[in-house]
Write a structure and sequence with these properties.
Blueprint lengths: L9 E3 L4 H17 L11 E3 L8 E9 L2 E8 L2 E9 L8 H4 L1 H7 L8 E8 L3 E7 L4 E2 H13 L5 H10 L2 E3 L3 H29 L2 E2 L8 E4 L2 E4 L6 E2 L21 H4 L6 H20 L4 H8 L6 H18 L16 H7 L10 H11 L15 H81 L9 E2 L26 E6 L4 E6 L6 E2 L9
Parallel strand pairs: 2-6
Antiparallel strand pairs: 1-9, 3-4, 4-5, 5-7, 6-7, 8-11, 10-13, 11-12, 14-17, 15-16
Helix pairs in contact: 4-5, 6-8, 6-12, 8-9, 8-11
Length: 529
């Protein structure tokens, strides 16, 4: 899917409608500056009986909830008139219903419908006049595009007529138009709606009912409308609320559906993310029915369901020519990553509307495809934004390189320490093995000695000598004396003695060549021996 309008059979048509819009806005501005204002009474909010001229009804525009919208003219100005019946609002007064107009009166932005005035009819009906009159809302346009693509449109002529009224004309195959101009128009209005929401939040006002049916479309323009349940927090000390006057299933944040304390600004960003997802669904060729199933899932499983659905859309987005969300390029990148952040289950993890708008500029590339011509930033702004991103990337790269060097140094130190500990461990293991072997050898020797001793005691147990000593060595073996009976010494007599000369008394005294060690017999002391 390409966004290049060249060679497309659909082209934007610059009609006299633009001149009529200028004239109407000039008239409204003149009413605002006049002492008589629009009604001729000098008041913006008046009673029906005070109207000096009749409001002409031209036809219905839509209906929803307890309100009915129709196209009217007052003088030469065509406006949208919203009729609200108090009897359909429980415990509501006209003054309470007029709070919508009071909030709109504080908002002056090119992408927010302008309040012209209000008036009442009796005690139960309130009329709110706004400008401009839209061709259709985003909900109907998305349905038209999908039905024309799938061939399921109930009225092809009516759908084509709406496209023409939005400023396109058919000059060839209809499919080519859908592939190019209409899709380019759809993605360009996302930035414009985000600009409007950023402005609203800056005024400390929360919309609280952002959805495609409340985004009105006119030739080359988009408007945020329906502030029926909006809240003005300018005089509030807190930015949270626990009130919930209503919500739209599939667009309300999980915390809103749970009717708990929540931040309305963060909830608005979630709703805007749901709008983004609906547009992406149509542009990337999926069905809105599937998108509705994903967004209406239970709050417990919705997080995983949304993530899975976005993963399915990513390959489709790349096939349309969009770069990946993390690609380093000045070409447009797809918005699925940003949409996922906006639809985060945790409100604290969602970006603000201002951050979303900045990301749209960055991801729209040099062409800024996600903003209409009215909201495109200057080249200097885009250049600065890209330059800051490159500087941050360079700083991140430098930091990463430094960190890698530090980690490599730490790894080398750890490696040396491991080598030292391994060598030490091997030394200890060698010592332990040596000690174990030594102990084992000693144990073997002791065991062998005990076995020999038991054998000798069993065969010929020695008796004690008359003098009380046993002829056993200290180690438990029998004394082996050179003077044993029947043994001749080389230099001794036959009785086992050796002639030894004692120089003390010049007498010859026989001495044993080897005196046996004598141990006292049991029960005999050495002194007694």
């Amino acid at each position: 899917m390409a966004d290049d309008p060249q060679d497309s059979p659909w082209h934007l048509v610059h009609r006299s409608r633009a001149a009529a819009d200028v004239q109407s806005r000039a008239q409204i501005e003149q009413w605002s500056a006049s002492q008589k204002y629009w009604s001729g009474t000098g008041q913006k909010h008046i009673k029906h009986t005070e109207l000096k001229s009749k409001v002409h009804v031209e036809g219905p525009l839509g209906a929803g909830g307890a309100a009915f919208v129709e196209r009217v003219t007052y003088g030469a100005v065509a406006m949208a008139r919203k009729k609200i019946d108090r009897r359909r609002h429980r415990y509501a007064t006209l003054e309470r219903l007029r709070e919508e107009a009071e909030i709109m009166d504080k908002l002056v932005h090119r992408h927010i419908v302008a309040l012209v005035g209000t008036y009442t009819q009796g005690a139960n009906v309130l009329y709110i006049l706004t400008y401009p009159v839209a061709v259709c809302d985003l909900h109907h346009l998305l349905d038209d595009i999908e039905d024309l693509r799938l061939g399921t449109s109930a009225d092809v002529e009516d759908a084509v007529k709406r496209c023409e009224m939005l400023g396109f004309r058919q000059g060839g195959e209809q499919e080519d138009a859908l592939e190019k101009q209409v899709h380019a128009y759809l993605v360009s209005l996302l930035g414009c709606v985000t600009e409007a929401l950023t402005y609203i939040h800056a005024q400390r006002i929360r919309h609280q009912d952002l959805k495609p049916s409340n985004i009105l479309l006119a030739p080359g323009q988009v408007y945020l409308a329906d502030f029926g349940i909006s809240r003005d927090l300018k005089d509030s000390m807190h930015s949270v609320t626990d009130s919930c006057v209503g919500f739209s299933l599939g667009y309300a944040a999980p915390e809103v559906e749970a009717r708990g304390v929540h931040h309305p600004a963060s909830a608005d960003v979630y709703s805007l993310g749901a709008v983004f997802l609906n547009v992406a669904t149509v542009v990337y060729g999926e069905t809105r029915a599937r998108c509705g199933e994903v967004m209406r899932g239970g709050t417990g499983s919705r997080k995983a369901t949304i993530e899975g659905y976005l993963e399915e859309l990513r390959p489709r987005a790349v096939k349309t020519g969009r770069a990946g969300e993390d690609a380093l390029t000045c070409l447009p990148r797809h918005l699925l990553g940003l949409t996922e952040a906006m639809l985060a289950h945790d409100p604290e993890k969602r970006p603000s509307a201002e951050e979303v708008n900045e990301r749209l500029v960055e991801m729209g590339g040099i062409e800024q495809v996600y903003h209409g011509r009215c909201c495109k930033k200057s080249s200097a702004y885009v250049s600065k934004l890209i330059d800051n991103k490159l500087q941050n990337l360079s700083h991140s790269t430098t930091t990463t390189t430094t960190r890698l060097a530090t980690l490599e140094s730490e790894r080398a130190a750890d490696k040396a320490l491991i080598a030292t500990l391994t060598a030490t461990n091997e030394t200890h293991e060698a010592r332990l093995i040596k000690e174990r072997n030594h102990v084992a050898e000693l144990y073997k020797k002791q065991l062998a000695h005990q076995q020999r001793r038991r054998g000798r005691e069993k065969n010929s147990p020695p008796d004690a000598d008359a003098d009380g000593y046993d002829d056993w060595d200290d180690d438990g073996s029998a004394a082996d004396c050179d003077g044993a009976a029947g043994r001749d010494d080389d230099n001794g007599a036959a009785d086992g003695t050796t002639e030894y000369t004692a120089s003390r008394d010049d007498t010859t005294t026989p001495w044993p060549s080897k005196a046996p060690k004598r141990t006292p017999a049991a029960g005999t002391s050495v002194d007694a021996a």
